[in-house]
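Hey all, sorry for the wall of text incoming. These are the two entities for the joint prediction.
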Amino acid sequence: MAAALELRCWGGDWGLPSVHSESLVVLAYSKFSGAKLTVCPIDWTWKTITASVPELLCGDAVVQEPAQILHFLRKQRFNADYELTARQGADTMAYIALLEEKLRPALLHTFWVDAENYSNLTRPWFASRSPFPLNFVVPSRQASAALSRILVTKGEAPLHRISEVEGKIYSDAKECLNLLSYRLGKTKYFFGNSPSSLDAFVFGFLAPLFKATLPSSTLQSHLKQLDNLTHFCDNILAVYFSAQNPSLPPPVQETMDANLQKLTQLVNKESNLIEKMDDNLRGSPQHKTHRAESRARVSTVTD
Amino acid sequence: MALVSAEPWPENATLYQPLKEDQILLSDCASSLAVQAYLRMCGLPVQVVCRANAEYMSPSGKIPFIHVGNQVVSELGPIVQFTKAKGHSLSDGLDDVQRAEMKAYMELVNNMLLTAELFIQWCDDATAAEISRPRYSSPYSWPLNNILAYQKQWEVRRKMNAIGWGGKTLEQVYEDVSQCCQALSQRLGTQPYFFSKQPTELDALVFGHLFTIITTRLTSGELAERIKGFSNLLSFCRRIEQTYFEDKSSST
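and here's what came out:
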């Protein structure tokens, strides 16, 4: 098919293929759509400070940002949203916006700004995955980027400090989790029985929060109370990321192609039948006398 | 808390926004119109007062804000919660899944439309120089007007960089707006409002933004043209304008 697809992302831990939300989104989507990605973790390389993660390389093209990467994969015919209606596509955009606005600030805070989590979990993990001397630089750079992002987007005026904003972002995040839980209900995935890009985004955002061993997190305990969301994450991990399960359910695009193939075969069979019937008709006695008559007419004319 | 909800809505509730003719910008006008539409849909009377320093009077620095009794509340989200505490709500009839959808679509509008308006106003050099900076600093004299205008521009550009819009071109932003409007158009379909017969705060928010974009003159009319391509959104705006904003003329 196309050139080989290579994805640069952070490595995995805590039972997840990657600890980085955005990389997880891309990995999940590639499994749902059947794209074969070579995963190149940037751990222990100098790319921890130079590369913007996640990054997809395909031949000469370099694509960054999860939304752009998913768009690129769709153009390469790896499409997990094939069966969605236009209305469901609109809902996807809306729910992704909800995740970005309401959940992302709280996730950034939980992992990078909350002092206990940062010093006990996040910083040691990222420092241990970066080569010397970057282990001193990478985690703190990411932490300050996270803090400034929260303050710039959620801190209403320059006078507000992080402590005043905390209460608001956590209550927004809890509300967002509740809304996702209502929307998912009892179904396996957000739109029917096969996963789509919305499932990839929700999985990417929720799985690290669910699986990481955070020393103190009210948000994590809130998430663990929402059973359908935790089952959703576990289900995707078991079906698509389990090493013991090599036979994955066929991705949506392939089933569509298989159906199309079957249809073409049927049509070909029918046209063969019609040709046979035609031949039979031409070889039939009534038809032969008709032809003999016309031949006779022609011969009389030429005579 | 109990005192707040017990008081009825006073007659002298006021909504503050920057000066309409000279100062107010596209994004603030859209937010203000959304709040006005919401209050009219709830049937709550409010007077609109224009002040040059409205942005500084607001408790959160955002426009618009309402002054009701002895409470000051700014921005649509908190205002919706405030009116709900007083017993007026448009979304009571929705079930949990519908409410989740409504909140998601409101975030989509904030995430895409409002951010695009801010980008076009402050990150596009032509618009910033011709329209945004002169208008924003019009009530002030030199050198304060220059300082304030550039400070605001720097603040908005910082925010755009933080959320990843810093590297976008104007074309990409127009494309994002088109996609957002397509999603809204799909969701609206042929219904009169987003949740069939009754308007909700989502209708007020969408109306505020779309109507303002269509009726405001910028350096380029491309944004308005993109929205006018969606006929059901246009008739939606017209319907809300006729139902809630022209009642004075129809009652005579």
